[in-house]
Design brief:
The chain has 165 residues and is α/β, with parallel strands linked by helices. Helices cover 56% and strands 13% of the residues. Helix 4 packs parallel to helix 5. The longest helix has 18 residues, at 123-140. The chain starts with a strand and ends with a helix. The structure holds shikimate-3-phosphate.
Length: 165
């Protein structure tokens, strides 16, 4: 099986869906943010605060490259992975990209009170980032799952069906 990269905005459920998909397909799974946190021994928020976003992006690109060279099949990426053409090419060359599309309203509801995401800020910058990113996700994805009204199980089922085509 080719690799599966799950992309989408913060709070779109990439980690939960990735984990469940890996159980259903009986394939290996990794969450890129967790991998980065484990490698650096600290959390994403501290990495942004202590070393800055540019450092995080370089580390994220290196981590993606390492995982793309590994045997791991299902990868939940961080919401900003699509900010780099190099990352998109890396994912395209080694697997299929699935975009979990979630509406801004739903994300806003899910992330209310979330302090773990350094780029989830005030309402206007959140909306701007969301608008800019959806074009990037849509352009690179092999297919899109509209996740707002679906349970995790339904999303996984839809992915499994679409992978068969
Ligand atoms: C980011 C999303 C986060 C994490 C970091 C940057 C982004 O991952 O990689 O905070 O730029 O959208 P999640 O999408 O898992 O929240």
């Amino acid at each position: 099986m080719k690799k599966i990269y799950l992309v989408g905005f913060m709070g779109s459920g990439k980690s939960t869906v990735g984990q469940k998909l890996s159980n259903v397909l009986n394939e290996s799974y990794i969450d890129l943010d967790h991998y980065i946190e484990k490698s650096l021994g600290t959390n994403i928020d501290s990495i942004f605060r202590d070393s800055g976003e540019a450092f995080f992006r370089q580390y994220e690109a290196d981590a993606l490259k390492q995982i793309s060279d590994s045997d791991i099949k299902i990868i939940a990426t961080g919401g900003g992975i699509v900010e780099s053409t190099q990352n998109i090419n890396c994912m395209k060359q080694t697997g299929k990209i699935i975009y979990l599309h979630t509406s801004f309203e739903e994300i806003h509801r899910r992330l209310a009170g979330d302090n773990s995401r350094p780029l989830w800020k005030d309402d206007q910058s959140n909306r701007n980032l969301y608008q800019r990113r959806i074009n990037l996700y849509q352009t690179c994805a092999d297919f899109v799952i509209h996740s707002d009204k679906l349970t995790v199980e339904q999303q996984v089922e839809e992915i499994v069906q679409k992978l068969k085509v």
